[in-house]
Amino acid sequence: MTSYAPYECSGLQTCLSRRFDFGFRVVHEEKRVIAAVRNAGATVAQGEILAFVDADSRIHPNTFNAIEHATSNGKVIAGATGISLERVSLGIAMVQIPWATGMDSGVVFCRQSDFMAIDDYDEHMLFAEDLDFLWRLRRLGRSRGQKLIRVTSVKAITSMRKFDQHGEWHYFSLIIHALYGLLVSPNRVEQFAKKYWYGNQRT
Fold it and tell me: Which of 17-21, 103-107, 122-126, 152-156 has the lowest average pLDDT?
């Protein structure tokens, strides 16, 4: 199991009080949708490269150096670092297969200009927003001869809290539930997404 030493910042309030020491800004977004929160952060970002990661993930200490190197030659439009699992079991491993498409999760990154060119994250999506985001970036990149990249040398450690909460094999029933909902009732998919990803109180 991979383990990264955390920065000295114990608790949300401590981190917020020391945000200027760390050189970051806190942005408040009322719409409780992951895509909207990411768009809000990108709106105030001032750098050339944007990077997005889930709040319950830990990033590799060399993440931003690796992203800078990957995007420096103009051949890459965007990418992701991929993930390392916080813990492993057979049920978890069965759904953590790297994608042959070049799309992945972890820290997702792109240039700010390309983020704007594809009209940012789709705030109508309650889940799978990263996949849609990278799919549109890949389409834009193909028109320029650019590609997506997986920077797997700096994988983010992702939380297994959903597996802790719902069980080691729950993802298979989740996929079946989502496919059935899409075929029978899209409204059921939305209701399920709100319950699973947002706890029925964050959207």
Answer: 17-21
